Amino acid sequence: MVDPGLALTPVVGFVDRLRAAGLSVPVGSTLAFVEALRVVDPASRAEVYWAGRATLVRRQEDVGAYDRVFAECFGGVLTVDLGGAAAAALQIALDTGADDPGDAGGDDDPGPDGDTISVRWSRAEVLRERDFAAYTDDEFAEARRLMADLRLTGAPRRSRRRRPAPRGRPDLRRTVRRSLRAGGEPVERASHGPTTRPRRVVLLCDVSGSMEPYARALVRFLHTAVVGRRRVEAFALGTRLTRITRELSSRDPDLALSRAAASVVDWSGGTRLGEGLRAFNDEWGVRGLARGAVVVILSDGWDRGEPDVLAEQMARLARVAFRVVWVNPLKATPEYAPLARGMAAALPYVDEFVEGHSLAALENLVEVIAR
To answer: In the chain, where are the structural domains located?
Structure first.
C-alpha cells in the first residue's frame, strides 16, 4: 500500500529514478503527477500507478522501464485488469473486381455478430511497378483499366487569345462598351492579359518485333492519350510509318486497338526508325504537325537502317519541335546502356530520355510531357 501521507520528496525521488532509467520527464509532467495525486486515492497503488503512467510516460517504449521503477519504489509488480472488450472480427476482402464477398452467402450466411473491420487489398500498387513484359492476360486487362485514368496534357504555350485581367494591356473595346453605361465617360477601364493553351503532342510508337513485349501496352497508352484530349497525333513506326490517330479515336478500346492493328501492316516486323522519321518529317512534321509540339518516340532504339539517317532526321525533328522525349522500356534494366546504333545516334537530339516499362513509368511520362 502507498503511504496516504505521500509527500513531495518521495515523488521527486520517484521522478529522478525514472529519469535515471532513461525516461524523459519534464518539470511540467512532474507537476501534473503531483496534481493527479491530489485527485486520486493515494492509498491505492493502482490509482497511483495510472496517475504516473498518464502524466510521466510519453512514449510507448518507456512503459517497461516505468513499470520496473514503480515496482522498486512502491513494492511488488502491479497487475491491472483493463477489462477490455473482446477482439473485433476481422474480415479480409480481396479487391478483385468481383462482387462483395459478404454478399456471396445470401440470407443463409448472417456473418459475424457485432461490428466488422474490413481490410481491402488491391494489386494496383504491385502492377504499377511490374514490367509490362511480365504481365499475364488478367494483369494486362487490369492495367488497361488503370491506364484509362491517365490524362495526357501537353506543355503550356502562350496563346494569341487574351482574357480579362485586373492588370495588363488596356482593352479598348470593353472600355468603350462599359463607357456607354456612364454617358460615354470611360469611368471603368478594362484590361486584358495573355492566356495559355496546351501544346500539340505527337506520339510515335515502335511496333517492331523487338518491341513486341511492350507494344500492346504502349499502343493502349496511345489510345488513352488520343481519346483523352484533342491535339494528340499517334503514329506507328516499323519498316514504314502509319498514322493511327483516326483508328484510335474510338471510345471502345478493343475496337480501337483492333482497327489500329489492322491498319499497321508491318506489326512485329523489322525496324527502320530513320526512314520512318524521314517520312514523318517530310509529310507531317516539318510541314507543321511537329512545330512547337512535344514529340514522344516510344522505342527501344534497335534500328536496322543506317544510324546516320536516323541522326539526320532526329536533328531535323529537334529543330522544329518544342521538346523531343524518347521513351525506352529497356532503360529500366540496371545494366542497360544506350549502345545500340540507333539509340546512340538519336540520343544527342533528345531532350528527355525516360523509362516506359510499367504503369509508374507511364505516369512519370505524363508529367514529363506536361512540363
So the answer is: 8-74, 89-122, 162-196, 199-370
